[in-house]
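FAQ: What does a ligand-bound record look like?

Like this one, built around pyridoxal-5'-phosphate:
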Amino acid sequence: MMEKSVRPILEMNAFDKQSPHNTNVARRLANTGASSVLFYRDPIEMVSAEGVWMTAKDGTRYLDFYNNVPCLGHSHPAVVAAVSQQLAKLNTNTRYIVPIVDDYLEALKTTFPEPLSNVVLTCSGSEANDLAMRLACKHTGGEGFIVTESAYHGNTSLVTQVSPSALKNTKLPDHVIAIPPPSKKYYGSNIAQGFAERVESAIAQLEQRGIKAAALLLDSIFSSDGVFAEPDGFLKQAVEVIHNAGGLYIADEVQPGFARTGTAFWGFQNHDVVPDIVTLGKPMGNGFPMAGVVTKPQFLDEFCADVGYFNTFGGNPVAAAAGLAVLNEIKNQNLQDNARILGDYLKAGLQKIADLSPHIGEVRGSGLFLGIDICHPNDNNQPDPEVTLAMIDKFRDENILIGAAGAAGATLKLRPALCLTKSEADLFLQAFKKILDDI
Ligand SMILES: Cc1ncc(COP(=O)(O)O)c(C=O)c1O
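The answer part, i.e. the structure of the complex:
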């Protein structure tokens, strides 16, 4: 069962309907109604972006530590050129042979271990997870899913059911069990064993309800749970447990994938496991909407024997051009190394500042995906969402964009572009220190 304290992810730092200092907020509300998701109580009007920086209408330049979609940096010239050229030449669905599509698929596949050799391209991470879940149900004959308590896996009907952090009032359905994220707080010093035991009991719980487990579906860095990356390898035991029960392991790489963790190209590789299905998205096209499912041919054979799968825009040549540019740039600019080096630098700097502050619990994460727990002074186990929110606003005053995650919304989440420089990391560290000194 979900903890009562879990906060829906889209409600964290949501805009204030009563503070439309400009008419644009009212305009957005009139257009998108209750589904509006503007950031900041007092939202920002943005006009352009480049590298790790975004520029607002009033000319303010913001250091973007929030957005993990533009992994190469905003408006990256290689992606802009690749997309523009392909769009001017040919864009169509995947029913024709267009070599750039297969060039992309082959380049993407080189980043995966055997036997993950088939790819289905989609337009969103939600579609990717939706298909992954259907593949798992088909192969196993089960329909139960095990996820973490504040997981987010997307917005389709099927995927919303396994996204506790998207649910405001609704209870999880019987076929979904949410377990605590792999944190020391829940599992003590042996996270691997504690987490695996919890997966085991979730499988038993499903069985008691007459439901067979189809899959363990995990974001490889537990992004919306509050970022849990350490220690390396802690997922291995849990994956063995689900496999022994006849279920699959689906690795959701929508957030940690494409070199962000610095130590590996895919988050699951930090755990020395090979998933049955991997889902990709966000940074895949550096802002061009594209996502995908990577899996074993057998699963697609079984599924497609019953149902066809076609995605009008998924895997179009322009997406392939964007995706290829992303893979090439990550490699050519050594961005995985940069993520590791700058990530280590940032983490060490944050830890040094955190050691002097009673408001900081843990600093966690890997590469350029870090989480900082904000706690009540002198009680590291007591999350402080109010101070977290105040800090997010103070970062904004320092022209830095940052968000929060975790069950209580009290973990600052850092995900700058992989091209981050040392001086940009220093700007963040200086602001972090100043904000903590002022609290
Ligand atoms: C871990 C994870 N999986 C899946 C999704 C869904 O991706 P999309 O918004 O592209 O549908 C998200 C989106 O935030 C995500 O964070």
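Follow-up question: can I read anything off the structure? Yes, for example: Residues 29 and 90 are 37 Å apart (CA to CA).
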